[in-house]
Every structure is written in C-alpha cells, then in structure tokens.
Amino acid sequence: MTISKMPLVLAVSGALVLTACTDPNQTGANSNTPKTQQGALIGAGAGALLGALVKGDGKRDDGALVGAVVGGAIGAGIGYSLDQQEAELRRDLDSDVTITNTGDRLILNLPQSIVFATNSFAVRPDLRDDLFSVAASLNKYPQSTVQVIGHTDSDGDASYNQQLSERRATSVANVLLDAGVPGNRLRTFGRGESQPIASNLDAAGKAQNRRVEIVILPTS
Predict the structure, then answer these.
(1) In terms of pTM, does the model score above 0.85?
(2) Other C-beta atoms within 10 Å of 29: how many?
(3) In order of start, what are the domains of the chain with their CATH numbers?
(4) 11, 67, 116, 140: which one has the fewest Cβ atoms less than 10 Å from its Cβ?
C-alpha cells in the first residue's frame, strides 16, 4: 500500500473507532461524546501513522489499521476521562476559573485578580481551597502530568515580569504539592509578558494577560 492511500485508512479506521465509542443514549446537547470522539480521532491518527511506520514487512495497510484502532481506543478513553474531570472541576471551582477542554488536555486559567495581590507572588488565602480542589482532582486522576505556567501583562520591566511569572507559577505549584500532588508530576514555567491572550493596550486586556494556567496532560 502506498503512502498516498494512508488518508483513506485513517478515515475508515477513525470512523470505526468513533462508531464503537458512541453511546446511543448520550447524543443530546448535554452529551460528553464530542470530546471523546475528538480524543479518538487524535489517537486513531497517531496510531495509524505509527502502525504504518513500524510495519517492516511491506504490509503498511495492516499496520496502519491496527494502529488506528488501538490508538483510537486509547484516545477515546483519554477524551472520556478528561470530560469527567472537566465536569467535576467546573462543579468544584470558583466561576472565575475558566476551563478549556481541547480533547487531549485541560487548561485551567486562573486570573491574577483571584490568585495574587498586585506585584505579589503569595497565593491569596481564599484561593487555596480552589487549588486544593484542583489537587484532589489531580490525585483522583493520576495518569497525567501538570504544567503550571505564569503570565504577566507588559507593564514594567520585562525581566521583572519574567521573574514574577516564574515565582507565581512556583507558588501555585507549591500549594498543589502541599495538597499531596507528587512533585514528579509537576512542571513550572514563567512566560513573563511573552504570551498575551489579549491586547496590552487597555486595562481589560492587561487583566486577562495576568494569569496562571494549570495544564493537565494525560499520559495514557
């Protein structure tokens, strides 16, 4: 089978996996199936490619098909687990914490206004409960690594903002550690002012850019 035929294998295999993973009783507006399906597609594509590449006997079609089915099943499982974790976090966290489920990770966005005082990297006492809820979720779903990423707006010196973002990320990670999350699952990063999500030309945009993100990345 030539490489040019690979998209057909991916499409067919992905469709098979998605059909197997769809619960006919969960097709309404409140269904979590779309993220599960997205996870299945991601897994199927990666599995098919890997299966084709590792197959050394010229039968790339068989390797791709098996890889797609296995990868799709794993991806669907990850998507379902993320859906469950997302729903529980939305239930337990302050409404100011926004959660994005991309199908292969969860991104928790904590605005600076609820985490830190201005120019401080000490976590506000009233947010510790939310972070303990995050830690409880991480311990309930242990098959993931966690990135804690600090961000600032562009006010002030760039090197100061970089250091502040690093310290804030570390402070949040330390609360998770105190709540029992193993240190080998945590990574901290400071991005300073380099990754804005809004304009730094007005107060509203700057407020969005001052944040800490907790990124939950499933490992299996």
Answers:
(1) no
(2) 4
(3) 35-82 (no CATH), 95-218 (3.30.1330.60)
(4) 140
